[in-house]
Design goal:
By secondary structure, this protein is α+β, with helices and mostly antiparallel strands. Helices cover about 35% and strands about 25% of the residues.
Length: about 110
Amino acid sequence: MFIVDTNPSFTHKVIVQVPVDGGYEEQTLQATFAVIPAEVAAEFDLGGASGSTDFLKRIILKLDDLVDKDKKPVPYNDALRDQLIALPFMRLALSRAYFTGVSGARSGN
């Protein structure tokens, strides 16, 4: 049986490789994504900064498990989303999590 959902979404753990002196630090957050039809996704120029920014704004519904440097919770809002997706390593991690989620592929496959 297949459940028809006219507004599909999913929440996945996102692994972010944050650059630090001499290497990377693995950090995680939870992202809730809207699933968009393939023809809508094709409208975005994912090869350019502007197109990929618009795409991420379209698919990200919410980000959770965010804290500041003092480990105090940071509430999600669109301004914070925009600040985070301006970071190249965050863009890559969020895009990878979305496409892995919608394709069902596991990391490393």
